Amino acid sequence: MSDVTLTIDGIEVTVPAGTTIYDAARLAGIDIPVVCYHPHLTANGLCRVCSVDTGGRVFAAACVTAVNPGMEVKTQTDSVCSARRTILEMLDATVDLSESPEVLELLERYDAQRGRFEGARRESPVHDDNPFYIRDYNKCINCWRCVQVCGTDAQYTFALSFDGRGFHTTIGTFMGEDMPDTTCVFCGQCVGVCPTGALKPKRQALLEQGMDPDEIFFATRRGRRNRRPEAQADGD
Ligand code: SF4
């Protein structure tokens, strides 16, 4: 495969053809912020926080845009930073980011004005339908990581997909089925890649609610959810 030479923030870098701007920048020691991107999952350029200036009419999403010979990429101009700030402010206006440490750090780094935008917020019931994890889509930023890890990027179980269109697009199960009625094998990989706390281990959620660890243990053991220790000792 041939190599491609370009400049990123004035630094010349040579990378194999097909490399993304994001990966080329990392090789040059330049950090481009990301939200939806995960190094072990297919990038989709959904959040656009990794937008960079390549001299074109619109900014390019660095995580999905391949380098070109002679390309001059700028990752930190005022307009690039302003675009990122606006994206983050709009995200903050829509979703509960209280358990999204990486996004909260970016809000601070880009001096985002929280409360700048007002409008409809994501509203969803919390899905507590299995002993292993809860789904709180009030905190979901539609990054798509859980869908991909559940599908062709890792698990091939396809229990998670999306529903709705535009602003109302949400992650969910086929026909809104409870998780035990889907193909989910409760591998936990979706929980592991979720950056916002929208997917959370049930035990963590119960601990945060102040439940006693012993209670949690018996409440979350599969098939024994309602059995108390005394009931088991009695052989009930
Ligand atoms: S549930 Fe989590 S991993 Fe899935 S799309 Fe929402 S924020 Fe991303």
Topology:
Elements (H helix, E strand, L loop, with lengths): L2 E6 L2 E6 L4 H7 L23 E2 L7 E2 L10 E2 L4 H17 L6 H9 L16 E2 L5 E4 L8 H6 L9 E4 L6 E4 L15 H5 L5 E3 H7 L4 H7 L9 H5 L3
The structure holds iron/sulfur cluster.
Provide structural commentary:
The protein has 236 residues and is of the alpha+beta class. The protein has a domain at 126-228: Alpha-Beta Plaits. Helices cover 27% and strands 15% of the residues. It is built from 8 helices and 10 strands. The protein has helices at residues 21-27, 78-94, 101-109, 145-150, 189-193, 202-208, 213-219, 229-233, and strands spanning 3-8, 11-16, 51-52, 60-61, 72-73, 126-127, 133-136, 160-163, 170-173, 199-201. The protein has a 3-stranded mixed beta sheet, with helices on one face. It has a 3-stranded antiparallel beta sheet with strand order 6-7-10. It has a two-stranded antiparallel sheet with strand order 3-4. The longest helix has 17 residues, at 78-94. Bound molecules: iron/sulfur cluster. Iron/sulfur cluster (SF4) binds next to helix 4.
Order of helices and strands: EEHEEEHHEEHEEHEHHH
Q: What's the level 1 CATH class of the domain at 126-228? A: Alpha Beta
The pLDDT mean sits at 91
CATH architecture tag of the domain at 126-228? 2-Layer Sandwich
Bound molecules: iron/sulfur cluster
Widest β-sheet, arrangement of strands: 2-1-5
* SS summary, helix count: 8
Spans of 5+ residues with little confidence (pLDDT < 50)? 223-227, 231-236
Give the CA-based shape: globular
Q: Quote the beta fraction.
A: 5-15%
* Percent of residues in helices: 25-40%
* Main sheet record: 3 strands, mixed
Roughly how many Å is the radius of gyration?
A: 21 Å
What is the terminal separation in angstroms? 67 Å
How many strand elements?
10
- Protein structure class: alpha+beta
- What CATH calls the topology of the domain at 126-228 is Alpha-Beta Plaits
